[in-house]
What we know:
- By secondary structure, the chain is an all-beta fold.
- The chain has strands at residues 5-6, 13-18, 24-26, 29-33, 41-47, 65-75, 77-81, 85-87, 92-105, 117-121, 128-132, 139-146, 151-153, 155-159, 166-179.
- The chain has no helices and 15 strands.
Amino acid sequence: VDLSKENFENHSFNKYNTSVNGTEVPNNWKTATNNTNTSYVNSGIISADNSLIAGINPSLSGNENYLYISSLSDTYFGYTSATSYTFESEKYYKISINVLTRYLNQEDKKDDINYGASIKLADSSEIMLCGIDTEGVWRTYTIYASFTTSLTSKITLALGYVDEATAGEVLFDNLTIETI
């Protein structure tokens, strides 16, 4: 997958490897989770006309397929790209993605933590957005970054975060990385 432009079209994924409720499993992404039991998670590529996401407005990009993660129980579950992107030193980058969350909940909520979806450079402990809650509306999230030394990293898109397990739904669409 070319991380500079990932729109979750089916040509990037195994159409024949389907799971329940019509979601398709990404073949260029790997599961990212700290849970041993993921039987309550429904995830994969979903088309805009799937009944699971009835009532959701079209994505800001107009794409017809999204990365979908849903859980009725608190979880940290996501996907990490199988390929890496090289961020060269002393250049500026813009990483953008459209995100929609709904029905977010947290069973043992702590007041000082924002629960929700997360976007992270997998090989950096500093570049991330966590606690994303769009309340059922598509929003574009952007990370601007510059590095003093080059970094080769994958990207993780998830419901929840390592210590911030979350229940609910998240849709991701139109991941782009640009040099600016």
